[in-house]
Design brief:
Elements: H1 3-7, E1 27-31, E2 44-55, E3 66-72, E4 83-88, E5 98-103, H2 110-114, E6 120-123, E7 147-149, H3 160-173, E8 177-184, E9 190-192, E10 215-220, E11 225-233, H4 254-258, E12 275-281, E13 299-304, E14 310-311, E15 316-318, E16 323-327, E17 332-333, E18 338-342, E19 352-358, E20 364-371, H5 372-375, E21 382-383
Parallel strand pairs: 4-9
Antiparallel strand pairs: 1-16, 2-3, 2-6, 2-8, 3-4, 5-7, 5-11, 8-9, 8-10, 10-11, 12-13, 12-21, 13-18, 14-17, 15-16, 15-19, 19-20
């Protein structure tokens, strides 16, 4: 058990941890209303078996190269009895690099929705609470852990092809199942937009939207494990509008986030996780969210990682359905302090879920996810950090 877990009193059946206390009447609840602009047509996931893969090098396509993953869902296809997933490996914008995230052991509530899914294409509503991917709101990855990579370099492990191809080849060799998130081609012979689809600029801005990001999730049956590949363009914004998916004014792009010092004078919104979600009680002892429940409520523990006190007035804690609990103006978090906030009428699912923290301007400060297995133990905290 970590020192943090001990300080939070890992078995929440006794007194609350030092420095943390209930905040009951000072919290208000509301549901975030979204009118999603969804420019990706027929967004969804294609479930299939990967059969072969190839990559376009600089000599073949120096401008808009792709990795092509050919897959079989049991219904044939125009590519030697298969269909084709086209994965971008270079941007046509001035900032041509991509950002790559690899989760070797991908533990997220979405995997339970993917298990047992039939082969073929499944259209997905672009909204919270389902199977749709959103790199910012879905708490799939830590954006700051990404790697900026060029398309094609002469060495080893120095370009995006060197990192993506081995994972896809392993999926083929080990009879894995792939879950390809994106937009199908009009003829349904393949899928593309297998990358982040928000925060883009210039001519690509029209494709922005929320809860419509692409990606590749892989299930390896030999070890009963999911892995995930996520890709974005380095020019895409870190903070995006909740309705349109457009980059917010003053937001860093991914290049600025991952390579500090690049055009820092233009950055207004920082992404330093100055307040972190360190733990949560998602499954209290007894029947939480019931009228006669008298036990400890569902709670989220927040840590001020900065050296200055922070007012949390107007900040929001969201669940997986984007239902939000807004903190009142009298809530103050001292430097290094851990404080618990109750979720009131906003439930945290015992079947796995998301918890996100937004500042008073609606900018995401931190986000975590937890699985059903983590939430199964009644009365125990789920520790995130």
């Amino acid at each position: 058990m970590s020192a943090l877990a001990k300080s939070l009193d890992f078995r929440v059946g006794s007194s609350c941890c030092p420095g943390a206390f209930y905040v009951l009447p000072s919290l208000l609840s509301y549901k975030v209303e979204r009118i999603n602009k969804v420019p990706i047509d027929n967004y969804g996931v294609w479930v299939a078996k990967p059969v072969r893969v190839s990559a376009e090098r600089s000599q073949q396509d120096p401008n808009t190269p792709h990795i092509h993953l050919f897959y079989d869902d049991g219904s044939g296809g125009n590519f030697n009895n298969a269909r084709r997933a086209s994965i971008n490996v270079k941007s046509s914008s001035e900032l041509s690099e991509l950002v790559f995230w690899l989760e070797k052991d991908f533990q997220h509530p979405i995997v339970n929705q993917l298990r047992g899914r039939e082969m073929g294409f499944h259209q997905i509503p672009s909204q919270a609470g389902g199977m749709a991917l959103d790199y910012i709101r879905g708490n799939l990855i830590d954006l700051s852990k990404g790697r900026i990579l060029p398309h094609d370099q002469p060495g080893t492990l120095d370009d995006i092809i060197d990192f993506v191809m081995p994972e896809l080849q392993a999926a083929i060799n080990r009879n894995a199942t792939v879950y390809l998130f994106g937009e199908p081609y009009n003829d349904r012979q393949g899928i593309h937009d297998i990358h982040m689809n928000q925060g883009s600029q210039a001519q690509f801005k029209k494709y922005n939207g929320v809860w419509q990001d692409g990606g590749v999730i892989i299930y390896f049956p030999d070890i009963n494990l999911f892995s995930a590949i996520f890709l974005a363009f380095a020019s895409q914004a870190v903070h995006t509008d909740e309705k349109t998916g457009h980059g917010l004014p003053g937001s860093q792009n991914l290049a600025q986030l991952l390579e500090p010092g690049h055009d820092e004078d233009d950055i207004i919104i920082s992404d330093d996780q100055r307040v972190a979600i360190v733990a949560a009680l998602v499954n209290p002892v007894g029947g939480e969210n019931q009228a006669d429940f008298t036990g400890k409520p569902e709670m989220v523990y927040l840590l001020n990682r900065s050296t200055q006190g922070i007012s949390l007035g107007g900040w929001s804690v969201l669940n997986k359905n984007d239902e939000a609990h807004t903190l009142s103006d009298d809530i103050w978090l001292a430097p290094g302090e851990v404080r618990s906030v109750t979720m009131g009428q906003i439930p945290l699912s015992n079947k796995g879920g998301l918890i996100s923290l937004l500042d008073k301007n609606g900018n995401k400060v931190d986000g975590v996810s937890y699985t059903q297995e983590q939430a199964d133990k009644e009365g125990e905290l789920v520790i995130f950090r």
